[in-house]
Amino acid sequence: MGIISSGERKALPASEFGLPGSEAYPMPDKAHAANAKARASQQANAGKLSPSQKAKIDAKANKVLGKGKKKRAA
């Protein structure tokens, strides 16, 4: 996972953050998405993140990681 500079982070659209309103948990690629899921789990277990916030982060990360709904073969 590469480091995101402050300029790169500011240039990211809100849609690439797990919590767009607070611009937390950036997910420009799969490595950052996997890391966001791990950090969200840690924060939720520590009581610093609500279950609904964690669910939003996990859903966004799964989308970036290509997990979730599977395409049916025709």
Description:
With 74 residues, this protein is mainly α. The chain has a domain at 14-63. Helix content is 50%, strand content 8%. It is built from 3 helices and 2 strands, in the order H-E-E-H-H. The chain has a two-stranded antiparallel sheet. Helix 2 runs antiparallel to helix 3. The longest helix has 16 residues, at 30-45. The relative contact order is 0.16. The model has no long low-confidence stretch (mean pLDDT 91).
The dominant shape is: globular
What share of residues is helical?
A: 40-55%
Head-to-tail CA distance between termini:
36 Å
Low-pLDDT runs: none
How can the largest sheet be summarized? 2 strands, antiparallel
Strand arrangement in the largest pleated sheet: 1-2
Measured by DSSP, the beta-strand proportion falls in 5-15%
Note the total helix count: 3
Structural class: mainly alpha
Mean pLDDT, all residues: 91
Structure summary, number of beta strands: 2
Order of helices and strands: HEEHH
Radius of gyration: 13 Å
Outline of the structure:
It is built from 3 helices and 2 strands; from the N terminus they run H-E-E-H-H. It is mainly alpha-helical.
Identify the notable features of this structure and list them briefly:
mainly alpha, 74 residues, two-stranded antiparallel sheet
List the helices and strands and how they pair.
Layout: H1 6-11, E1 17-19, E2 24-26, H2 30-45, H3 51-65
Antiparallel strand pairs: 1-2
Helix pairs in contact: 2-3
